[in-house]
Design goal:
CATH superfamily: Aldolase class I
Mean pLDDT: 92
Order of helices and strands: HEHEHEHEHEHEHEHEEEH
CATH topology: TIM Barrel
Strand order of the largest sheet: 1-2-3-4-5-6-7-8
Structural class: alpha/beta
Largest sheet: 8 strands, parallel, barrel
Low-confidence stretches: 15-22
Number of strands: 10
Distance between the termini: 39 Å
Radius of gyration: 19 Å
Strand content: 15-25%
Shape: globular
Length: 243
């Protein structure tokens, strides 16, 4: 009987430690993917998600037909995410339905009530790390979650101030770390670090702020809109080693 209890206790302890290790793994999203070859390179390297930009003014905008080709080629367990910037929510609905997308990233100035209208999707929302507004914006989203529910809001992407993503401009990670130490992320969805990340810098960011995930676009490109398989592999390896 004693041995049975010891075995059971050891199994429970192993389960706890295994659960903790799963929670602590930093996920990786390769964004700005516009070609089947780049999506497959991300999948082969071990990316958890790929992002496709649906914004006509972006150099990384993906035509719907090419997006359909990417979605058809994408293997299981790599999540496709559609990125939209200040598009009327009705058009986001139409685009997501037409491509059967379930994950949406809003990278503009979308308000909480717009997020609330996307309850049947998994939504991640970009916020800007600006010393003048960052704390207030975190508080605004915390209040909106309490007021509106926003169960669909599953992540906050920390973007560089003054950008809409893909700029290659480094973020203010010291400011993010300061707010984490103050407990300002309590009550908010998981954090996704973005903004100027590269294979050379992402490890320090993972160690500094321990994000749920990291999101990279220009940092793994060989030219605008085209990814480098070698850089993707180096990026994901750097994330893994930092853990």
């Amino acid at each position: 009987m004693r041995n049975d209890r010891e075995i059971r206790s050891n199994l429970i302890d192993f389960g706890r430690r295994l659960s903790m290790s799963v929670v602590q793994r930093t996920r990786v999203k390769i964004c700005g993917v516009g070609h089947v070859e780049d999506a497959m390179a991300a999948a082969r390297a071990g990316a958890d998600a790929i992002g496709m930009v649906f914004h006509p003014e972006s150099k990384r905008n993906v035509p719907v037909q090419r997006a359909a080709e990417i979605l058809a080629a994408l293997p299981p367990f790599v999540t496709p995410v559609g990125l939209f910037i200040d598009l009327p929510i009705g058009r986001v609905w139409d685009a997501a339905r037409s491509m059967n997308l379930r994950h949406i990233q809003l990278n503009g100035n979308e308000a909480p009530d717009q997020v609330a209208s996307l309850q049947q999707y998994t939504v991640i929302k970009a916020i800007r790390v600006d010393a003048k507004t960052f704390g207030d914006e975190l508080e605004m989203w915390r209040d909106a979650i309490k007021r509106l529910g926003l169960r669909c809001l599953q992540g906050l992407v920390l973007e560089t101030a003054g950008t809409v993503g893909g700029s290659g401009v480094a973020n203010d990670w010291d400011l993010v770390a300061h707010h984490r130490q103050r407990g300002d992320f309590v009550g908010l969805p998981p954090l996704i670090a973005a903004g100027g990340l590269t294979p050379e810098t992402v490890g320090d960011v993972v160690r500094k702020i321990r994000p749920w995930a990291v999101d990279v676009s220009s940092g793994v490109e060989e030219s605008v809109g085209r990814k480098s398989a070698d850089k993707i592999e180096a990026f994901i390896r750097a994330v893994s080693e930092a853990q």
